[in-house]
Structures are given as C-alpha cells and as structure tokens.
Amino acid sequence: MKSTMSDDALRTNLDAIATKVTDEERIWAYEALLLLRHERVTALGALADLVRRRKHPDGVVTYNIDRNINYTNVCNAFCSFCAFYRLPKHEEGYVQSVESIEQKIRETYEAGGNQILLQGGHNPKLEIGYYEELFGRLKQSFPDLWLHALSPPEIVHVCKVSRLDLPGTIRRLRAAGLDSIPGGGAEILVDRVRKQLAKNKCSADEWLAVMEEAHRQGLRSTATMMFGHVETLEDRVEHLARLRDLQDRTGGFTAFIGWTYQVENTALGGEEVTSAEYLRMLAVARVFLDNFDNVQASWVTQGPKMGAASLAFGVNDMGSTMLEENVVSAAGTVHDMDERAIVAAIRDAGFTPKRRDMTYTRLREPAFA
Ligand code: SF4
Predict the structure, then answer these.
(1) Considering the entire predicted model, what is its pTM?
(2) Chain-wide mean pLDDT for the chain?
C-alpha cells in the first residue's frame, strides 16, 4: 500500500525509528508497521543485527537436539492451512501407542538428546486421563526426559473434552510431567484472521490465556507466528504487540519463532511469501520484541541456506535437529539438518555454535570440529 506521506517525510520517520532502536528505546506498533511496509530489507537487517548483538554480544548461536513426535493426527479443528490432520474415523487417522512413542524417544537419546516436542491434533477421544497416563509412563521410562508438549489450542481442547477449567488442566498436566509449552497454534493472534483459517481453533484471547496461566504456574514457553496467508501487515504487528504485552506481564516466553505458511496439499492454497518477506518480518520482530531474548530461525520451512542467512536478520538460535517432522512436510516442504549440518551452517555464517536445552540454558560446545 502506498503511503500518504511524501518520500522525504517517510525517510525522516524511518530514520527517527532507527535512531530509537539505536538508543535502546522501545518502538510503537505503528512504527513497526512503517518499518515492515517501507524500510529496505538491508536496513532492517542492520537494525535487527544491532539488537541481536546487544543481547548476545559473544556471537554465540544456539541449537537444540530434540525430536518432534505427533501422538495423533486425528483432529476436528479444520485448519485450512493444514495438510497433516485426518478427521475422526478417517482410515489414515492414528493415535500412536506408548511403545511407539517410547521407541522414538530411545532414538532421540541415541542421537544425544533428552527432549521431545510432543504435539498432535484435537482428537475428540483423548481426555486429560490419556495425557496424564502417557506423560507418567514416559517419565517413568525416561526420568530425565524434558517434555515440551501441547500447544495452547491443544490445551484448550483438553479442557473442553475433559470439562475442566484452564488452571486445573495445566496443574494436572504439570503434575503428570509437562515441562514446557510449545507456542504452536498462534498463527496470527487476531480473531478475524483465525476465523478465516480455522473454524474450531481457540481464539487469540484463549491462546494468550493459556500462556499467561502456564507462565503463572512456572512453565516457560515459546511464542510463534505463522504468516503469509490471509493476514494484513497490521494483523502481523498486532500479533507481535499482543506477545510483547504478555511478555511484559510474565516474562515467560523463551523465544520467538516465526515461519511462513506452506501451501502444498492445503485447502487454503495460494502462494508462499518470498524469502525477502520472511527476512523482513523476522527483522521487525527482533526489533519490536525488545523483551524477548531469543529469536529462532525456521530452517524447517525456509531451508538450511535461508536459516543461515537469517542469522544476519536478528536470529540467534537455529532451532532444533527435528529428528522427525510431519506437519510442515505434509504441506510439501522437506528440509533436513542434523547436528553436524547445523553446526557447520552456524560456523560458516561466522558465529560460535553452542548446544542448549529447552530453557535456552547453554550446554556445551559441539562434540566435533
Ligand atoms: S494445524 Fe493442528 S489444530 Fe489445525 S487442523 Fe492441523 S492438526 Fe488440527
């Protein structure tokens, strides 16, 4: 959209925003929108890099070894951007057995990790007892396992099918072994957009309420954003503003992870946004989310090369090895990076790789040169 400002006035405004960032002043939502809409991608990269260096002056880029396990693909949320789910009673629907999940965890330990990202569809048959039993069994078999599990929409779904309130549900999941919460299912935290994307998914307020309650109970979580579908630039900035407000209140988010909508095999269809658009969005997020320490690359959607390039746009974390990934790959995007490849990409980009855990505590140097 063309600005109503003259080119000179626009340049003056953009320069004033850059000065605020340089002076460590918080920028307003309308300023983030101006940056997103008008600033050159190289200038955005420079600003985001400045903020990254301020927060991580030692030039370390972290990564994690974990495995993504989808315990069920049965779902009645009807997200039009999702190629992964199957409706209840569909012949390809599944709920993984505990034994099969345990086998995947064993393989994760063999690869050097003790953390899993456990997520699934909104399966109407799975009430809270299922999760309590599953988490309990997994913790019994693997006492030092870190369970990063159940995004906010899944937790809202568990509340509904179990007829429980939110604080009680989180308390019970936590008592059963839940260690932290993935920020999935945020998409864009604007209800007009959410209604267009998913008929049965939780509202923006509900997503934020889950995170606020989880943080209040001492669980950390990530925050995500999936963009490049039906949202406007204003919607993207509103999304960031809602995350920043909650982070001001709780400080419970460990990281921001943004990725672009993947088109293939989805009911929604359309076109994917460009790599430049991905980088612009990441950079503006890094600058606007001044109370987030970590911004993560999404090489799973963007590919290893863009993942490495994003390190110049405010990113300080390469995400995880994703020993298994089923959701993005169902939408036609398949990228692989093992620990060696992640470490090489970080070093090639001029940074020092360090492994971390889910709380972003640094663990050790990589085992290989
Ligand atoms: S994105 Fe998640 S909630 Fe939506 S349809 Fe797919 S599995 Fe279900």
Answers:
(1) 0.94
(2) 93
